[in-house]
Amino acid sequence: MSSATEETRQHGSIPQRADGAASQPALPELRPMWWEHGMRVRVDAGLLGVFAQLPRLVVEAVRIGWRADRARTATVAVSTLVAGAMATFGLLATQRVLVELFAGGPTPDRVRAALPALALLAAATAVRGGLGIVTGYALNGLTPQVNRDVERRLFETTSAVRLEAFDEDAFADDMERASRGTESAIVLVQEVFNLLAGVVSLLAVTVAVVVIHPLLLVALLVATVPNAYAALRAGHEKFKTYLAGSARRRRLWVLQRLMAERISAPELRSYRLRGFLLDQYDRVMDAHTKIELRLARRVTTTTSLGALVSGAALAGVYALLGALLLKGQIPLAAAATCVVAVQAAQRSLTLVTFQVDRVFANGQFFNEYVNFLHRADTYLPPADQAGTARPDELRELSVREVSLSYPDRDTPAVHDVTLTIRAGETVALVGENGSGKSTLAAIIAGLRTPTGGSIWWNGRPLREWDRDALHRKIAVVLQEHHKWPFTAATNIATGEIDAEPDRGRIEAAASLAAAHDMIHELPQGYDTLLDRTFKDGQDLSGGQWQRITAARGFYSDAELLIMDEPSSALDPRAEDTLFQAIRGRQGRQTTILITHRLANVVHADRIYVLEKGALVESGTHGQLVAAGGLYADLFSLQSAGYTAPAAGHYS
Fold first, then answer.
1. In whole angstroms, how far apart are CA 353 and each of 75, 166, 349, 356?
2. Under CATH, which architecture does the 384-473+560-566+590-642 domain have?
3. Where does the ABC transmembrane type-1 domain lie (predicted)?
């Protein structure tokens, strides 16, 4: 049974009480998190698989550093190698010092004889210390450059892919793991050089021991390898347990957020959820504690056995040294140097075993980053299909047999829609929820690529026009707008942040969206930061944010303005101001309006009615009401809500 299956069996969606009775339903399962993939690869690889991948990861880390800063990367590499050579030289110098000190004769003479070797030892130690400083300085300077290089490559990709990419669950998961890979790149570079330092130190000790006496190399391996293997096995057990507990940690993460975040605090108190959430927390934590205790016993047993074997082996090394001394096959100075070498080897091997897992885990995360960049290329707009012609002023926009299907749905969101919009018209897209209005608007705006049909601007397909120039002629006010963590003024001018914002235009746009007075009431007016995450930041209500978003659409004064449910959270007075501004564009600029409040579209030049992704009706308000179709039914339902009830109706 796999560890993940075991976790599900032990801690499924319905936790059990101590008496065996089922408790209240637990939280639903969350999708795996970014860090679980690297853990799973580590568990599946095993110890041999880890070592098999290390050379490739080392090369990859050096390549990353080399691309970011060649000088610093070369400095770290050379310093690491020279420091290893100094370690070997230092051990040999130590042996020479001991030889002179243990020689016969008066003590002053022995000390004087040892001084040259002692000076060489001091020089080697000083050089090695200086190289450590140089390595640290170079690594510190390399880190921010690696971070910038790797992170910018990711953002260059994520900000350029087509919007359809974000509809794919696999893309979202890959991107989450790739974002962790940017951090892992830095750690990978650092840990690889640390690993190299440990390996070089270990090799230095090995060389020194072989020079002293070849037989001591076997003793060195016997004394150090068991402990190192035990440490790697213990690490493997930790990875397996960590992976098996992924579902449990995800539940804990959700519970912690629910009990400690501002957004959930009102309902937690209103619905008296404190006891329920604490009960869920206790049940998951009970399971967590038991599993962690079992892990602690396994790890302790493994490391204790490794320590016992290494301790026994070390005793054997000392016995071997004693036997060699008694037989006169090794001088006392060499034996003493060997003791120092064994201790140095144990320290180096401890460093190496720790770095092996670090390099492997971070290498897997960085692989996800690299693989994501390759896969994301398929979502980039085709370079050979990008137009270069700059679009002229809008005269006519044609939607020709357009269809679009989302990857997770069996039926198309938009199916075979054809319509024409002329310059200066105000047209409305109406229909019930899920009828395809917002999807069609996104296609018209060039945000989504249709799976069938095409959009034409002044008699030419959108793909033949320069994409950036075309987007400058279109402003979109989205139903699901983003709350940008900037000032009110910057939020309104977001569409043209590459130019110097015009405060007069900003305030004029805010007035059209009924936002000017509201913004003036904020602590710093238009300079108020609209995010409580930052100091002095402010929260806005849904309706206030909707005014800011509408003002953003008016600020650009675009030839084509698409407004998707711009008044769903507005009060009646603000809504009236907004739609007066929209009607003011009529005959002068083109507007596409999406709204469920049909009273706001009666003045539209043409109304297009969608149902289940298909265009079923079109005409003016009067024509559609007279036709008695879907639009007439929806309008009648809304009108009835505003008709005063008969006397005594609510009695």
1. 25, 40, 6, 5
2. 3-Layer(aba) Sandwich (3.40)
3. 74-361
